[in-house]
Amino acid sequence: MHDRTWMRSSNARSDNRKSKIRNLKFVVLFGGMLLALSFPAQAQQAKKAPSIGYLSTGSPSSSTQTIEAFRQGLHELGYAEGKNITIEYRFAKGREDRIRQFASELVHLKVDVIFISSTAATLATKNATTTIPVVFTIVDDPVAFGLIDSLGRPGGNITGLTSGAGPGLYGKRLELLKETFPRVSRVAVLWNPGNVEAKLQRQPLEAAAQAQGIRLRFVEARLPGQIELAFTVMARERADVVLVSADPMFTSEYRRVVEMAARTRLPAVYPFRNVAEAGGLMSYGTDLSAIYRSAAIYVDKILSGAKPADLPVQQPTKFELVINLKTANTLGLTIPQALLARADEIIE
């Protein structure tokens, strides 16, 4: 009897231990399942937002319009800065040494793509990295400078959008000057000889001027602080009109350029419509804001897995003539009706 009681007690303890082991196994298994299920959510939360390196040759204050256009383009594609995208801004303020420094900084930060707004900055970044994708804007001839293999098949890690400021465009701007001011003979050209594209811009402009019987006087400004002096020189030499070259520094410092043209009462023609909108007399060229919004599309494609080598470089197909009549009236100028009739936009 005693033996049977002991056996029943022993069996009960054994069953209890087995039950505890089964319960423990269940808890471990269930906990493991919960942990495994939580990993994707945690990984998704911990996933780093893609980053863009934004390298400008201008300053923050002079680049507000183009920065806003780029942000707008990103917003239209579903990006919100500070939430699902980060942007590292660098502004060289016209200094070439800073362009190289900031290009290296952005590469060191290992951003996912670098967005650039000049030939000089693109060349500096090309020297700094051959792996991080690069999207450029405001580059006249990327093939001539060895940035890409061809417009259709860029190759390498660089692609983007050109400004369309080819030889034909310089001739067209001089034609507009001649039509607006039939007696024009002395045209001052505001240019930056420190820009790597300066020589590329000057040759076709001189050829077009010679064909139209116009004398050109190139007046230089290498830094933003030299723009005022350049206009003082042009006014002192009694230039009939000023042609502002498509230089990244003048593009970013357009408000200062417009201010000096007004102060010296010199009529000026500009390469981008935003300058005419800001008070410049006349512009013939592309819509700069539209270029920056389009650049955001290329950035998005790269962040989505596309390779720069396979993205053809875009060239503008539309060139707009914008005339600011308010500025013309202030300067006491009469714009020919035939020219007004051809204008894409008249600001009154």
Kindly estimate the percentage of residues that lie in beta strands according to DSSP: 15-25%
Number of strands: 12
Structural class: alpha/beta
Chain-averaged pLDDT: 86
Order of helices and strands: HEHEHEHEEHEHEHEHHEHEHEHHE
Largest sheet: 7 strands, mixed
Terminal CA distance reads 116 Å
Radius of gyration: 31 Å
In one word, what is the shape? elongated
Strand arrangement, major sheet:
7-6-8-9-10-11-12
Low-confidence segments, given as residue ranges, are: 1-12, 24-39, 41-45
Summed up, the helix count is 13
Question: Helical proportion?
Answer: 40-55%
What is the secondary structure topology, with strand pairs?
Blueprint lengths: L1 H45 L4 E6 L7 H13 L9 E6 L4 H13 L4 E4 L2 H10 L5 E6 L18 E5 L4 H14 L5 E6 L6 H14 L3 E6 L6 H10 L4 E4 L3 H5 L1 H10 L4 E3 L2 H5 L4 E4 L2 H16 L16 E5 H6 L6 H6 L2 E3 L1
Write up what this structure looks like.
Helix 6 (198-211) links the parallel strand 6 (186-191) and strand 7. The chain is elongated. It is of the alpha/beta class. The protein is built from 13 helices and 12 strands. The chain has a 7-stranded mixed beta sheet. Helix 3 (96-108) packs across helix 4 (119-128) and helix 5 (167-180) crosses helix 6. The protein is 48% helix and 17% strand.
Structural key phrases:
elongated; 12 strands; five-stranded parallel β-sheet; 13 helices; single chain; 348 residues; alpha/beta
In short:
The chain is an alpha/beta fold. The protein has helices at residues 2-46, 64-76, 96-108, 119-128, 167-180, 198-211, 227-236, 248-252, 254-263, 273-277, 288-303, 325-330, 337-342; strands spanning 51-56, 86-91, 113-116, 134-139, 158-162, 186-191, 215-220, 241-244, 268-270, 282-285, 320-324, 345-347.
